[in-house]
Amino acid sequence: MGRTIKILSVDDHQMTALGYKYILEDAEFDDFDVRVDVATGYEEGQKKIEFSARSVRYDIILLDISLFPPEAKDPRTGEDLGKLARQLVPESSIVFMSSFSDSFRINSICQAVDPEGYMVKSEIDELSLIEMVKTVTTAPPYYTHLALVAARKNIAQDYKIDKLDRTLLYELSIGTKTKDMRARIPVSMATIDNRKRALKILFGVKEKNDLALIEEARNRGFI
């Protein structure tokens, strides 16, 4: 047996992360074996990534997008953790493992993090996990079918969701009223209104209320 591929799996569902671990550690690879560490949330994942930056880096980091249940009221996502990993351990490959297959969300992640792979969870099985590791370690990227279709789909809108938009969506999702936004977001009310209007158009809920915007943003994995 040759070298060992070190993988970090970050998923707020422990059984999911452990499932990846057991499958990959039991799999037979031609010239390497695999060892998988598990983190069950953003903070634990951050600590392991920061430690790897000071010691032995991970070859692959597997990231779920939703790392908190809705009631946790924490806006940080796997995308944020991916951005952090790019800064701290740029040599590590990043693969997103998510239930979200929306083309806008996947393209947003590709632009923000430039991952070495994206797997839609409904398409993940033992064979695809093994193939992902082989591909990412030799000739990335690796996409499952739905992720590849979404990544290749042309996005009609030029609008890009930025940190301000995501903060606005998060505040709406926790019940912050529009009139109280300025205390939390340092921009004018006109900017807040314009951003919210643009997001409704982008998500196809132009004529609907804020609840429809929140639900659509949640369905697409932005909150």
What does this structure look like?
By secondary structure, the chain is α/β, with parallel strands linked by helices. It folds into 2 domains: 3-153, Rossmann fold (3-Layer(aba) Sandwich); 163-220. The chain is built from 9 helices and 6 strands. The protein has helices at residues 14-26, 42-54, 78-88, 103-113, 126-138, 145-152, 163-173, 189-202, 210-219, and strands at residues 3-10, 32-39, 60-63, 93-98, 117-120, 142-143. A 6-stranded parallel beta sheet has the order 2-1-3-4-5-6, with helices on both faces. The model has no long low-confidence stretch (mean pLDDT 88). This is Response regulator transcription factor. Keywords: Phosphoprotein. The modification 4-aspartylphosphate is found at residue 64.
Topology at a glance:
Blueprint: E1 3-10, H1 14-26, E2 32-39, H2 42-54, E3 60-63, H3 78-88, E4 93-98, H4 103-113, E5 117-120, H5 126-138, E6 142-143, H6 145-152, H7 163-173, H8 189-202, H9 210-219
Parallel strand pairs: 1-2, 1-3, 3-4, 4-5, 5-6
